[in-house]
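call fold target=Protein ARV
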Amino acid sequence: GSEAGGRADSAMAAPGAYRCVECHGEAAELYRDYRHGVLRISICKSCQKPVDKYIEYDPVIILINAILCKAQAYRHIIFNTKINIHVKLCVFCLLCEAYLRWLQLQDSSQNTDPDDLIRYAKEWDFYRMFGIASLEQTSFLLGIFITLWFTRPEMLKTKSDFILLLKALLLSSYGKLLLIPAVIWEHDYTPLCLAFIKVFVLISNSQAIRVTLNLNRLLPWLAIFIGLIFENGVVCLFQKMGWDV
């Protein structure tokens, strides 16, 4: 037995409620409590390895493994924990993106008039950027879901399957939070940093799709590519309307 610190919310659940972080096999429990603080991690029936070794790990170690895009860490977070920050994280990421675009728009505008009308216009610009960023994100996700629906409809049979994948995609977009430090510590290499952040977020999204649906690497990247086409379609539409994006 080992002292796991009680990181998981429940030792037992309905059959298949949890997943083995190594082989994606279904598991009914993550650990068994023998009382007096002694816990024994369950062994997967398929691969004979611990179902979830991460229940003993410090959150910082789990985060580092997630940043390294390890499939085991993603399975732990997506299937074996109860994290309900998806919507808040999504809104905060969109605010970061909107702020970055708004800042770039202000830099391109040389108008320094302190008039109230100008201030209101600038405030409206921020709301507009938030709306555009939201539509782009929605289009990106829509492209992913449409691609997966047409290629592997058996993977998304129920509403809960859609919700789980949506949560995984929103969580895996946490890299967008790096947009703010990249802007605050502005440097000649900032455009390059922003490009790296974009690539990192796409890699994280691809890993989230792969882990959630237990796919190979090719289909998630195809879905990401179609999602980017949808997103860029929205960008082109706004540009034709004469809006700065």
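return ok
Confidence is low (pLDDT under 50) at residues 1-13. Strands lie at 18-19, 26-27, 31-33, 39-41.
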